[in-house]
Design goal:
Rossmann fold, 278 residues, 35% helix, alpha/beta, 9 helices
Length: 278
C-alpha cells in the first residue's frame, strides 16, 4: 500500500475535498481497484465494490468460482460494466466470476398494482437491443423473459456457482419479489455465499419517484425479510465509517443467510494478540 492509498483508506477525507481526492485517484494509476470503487471513480462503482468484496469473502471461504447477477439489464450498459469488472476482480482475487443478466428484452411488463409505482414506471420502458448487446458481451449470459418465469427455474437450468453479488434494477415491487424467489430457503447452500453483497437501484430517488417502504424495491425488501426467518437483507453498514457520501452507499445491502453452513466460518484477521496492551 503506497502513501496515497494509505492516506485515502485510513484517513477518509472530508466531503469538501471529494473532487480533489477523485482527481488525485484518477491521476495516480497505482491506487487499488477497491479504493477507486469506494471513491466512485469507476463505471458502475457500486458493481465493482460489491463484486470485489463478494469475491474476497469467497476466497476467504475457500471457494474458487462465484456468480454475479444483474436483475434488470435494460440497454446493457451495467451488464457490460459488470463483465469488465469481473475480469479485474478475477485477477485480484483468483476467484472466477460467472456473470448473468436477467431481463425481458422487451422493456417493462405492465404494473400489477400501486406497489409497482405506475406513476413512475410504465410498460415498455427500458427496451433492449438484444442482438447489439450480445455483440458487446464476451461471456456473460443473458436470461431473457419475465423474471416471474425465468427466476424460479434459474437454479435448475443453470446450476450457478455460489452467488456473491446481485444488483436489482427491476423497478417494480412485483418483479423484485419474483427475483427474490431465487434466494429462498428451498435452494441449497451450494448456490449462495453466506453473505451476498447486493445493490438496489430504486431506493434513493427524487421528488418524482418518492421511494418508500410501502412500494417498490423497499417494500419488496421488507416483505422478503418478513417472509424469511433465517434469511435477511440488511443495510451495508460499512459505509457508516466514512464521512464521504455517495448515493450508492445508501443503495448497498447484504443478504445474510444465517443457517448457511459457512455463515459462522471465521474470516477475520483478528487474533489472540490483537488489541494487546502496549
Amino acid at each position: 500500500m503506497n502513501k496515497i492509498t494509505r492516506y485515502l483508506v485510513k484517513k477518509i477525507r472530508s466531503s469538501s475535498d471529494i473532487e480533489t481526492t477523485q482527481n488525485l485517484i484518477e491521476a495516480n494509476k497505482s491506487v487499488p481497484f477497491y479504493v477507486s470503487a469506494t471513491w466512485n471513480q469507476l463505471p458502475y462503482s457500486y458493481y465493482a465494490y460489491g463484486l470485489y468484496h463478494g469475491c474476497r469473502l469467497a476466497k476467504a471461504l475457500g471457494l474458487k468460482t462465484v456468480s454475479a447477477i444483474e436483475f434488470g439489464v435494460a440497454g446493457g450498459n451495467g451488464l457490460v460494466a459488470l463483465e469488465a469488472h469481473s475480469k479485474t476482480v478475477e485477477k485480484l482475487t483468483g476467484v472466477k466470476v460467472d456473470v448473468y443478466g436477467f431481463d425481458t428484452g422487451e422493456g417493462m411488463t405492465p404494473p400489477r398494482d400501486y406497489r409497482d409505482m405506475p406513476y413512475r414506471f410504465k410498460q415498455g420502458n427500458y427496451k433492449m437491443n438484444v442482438a447489439k448487446l450480445k455483440e458487446r458481451l464476451a461471456n456473460a449470459k443473458l436470461v431473457l423473459g419475465d423474471v416471474g418465469t425465468t427466476g424460479p427455474s434459474f437454479i435448475e437450468n443453470h446450476s450457478p456457482a455460489p452467488i456473491a453479488f446481485a444488483s436489482f434494477d427491476l423497478d417494480y415491487y412485483s418483479s423484485t419479489m419474483d427475483a427474490f424467489k431465487i434466494f429462498g430457503s428451498d435452494h441449497g447452500d451450494e448456490y449462495f455465499l453466506p453473505r451476498i453483497f447486493m445493490y438496489f437501484d430504486d431506493v434513493v430517488g427524487t421528488t418524482i419517484s418518492l421511494y418508500n417502504e410501502f412500494v417498490g424495491e423497499l417494500a419488496a425488501i421488507q416483505d422478503f425479510n418478513n417472509q424469511n426467518e433465517h434469511i435477511k437483507i440488511a443495510e451495508n453498514r460499512a459505509f457508516r465509517n466514512y464521512n464521504i457520501n455517495f448515493s450508492w452507499y445508501h443503495q448497498s445491502y447484504v443478504m445474510h443467510r444465517f443457517k448457511h453452513e459457512l455463515y459462522d466460518k471465521y474470516v477475520s484477521k483478528a487474533s489472540a494478540e490483537s488489541l494487546s496492551l502496549k
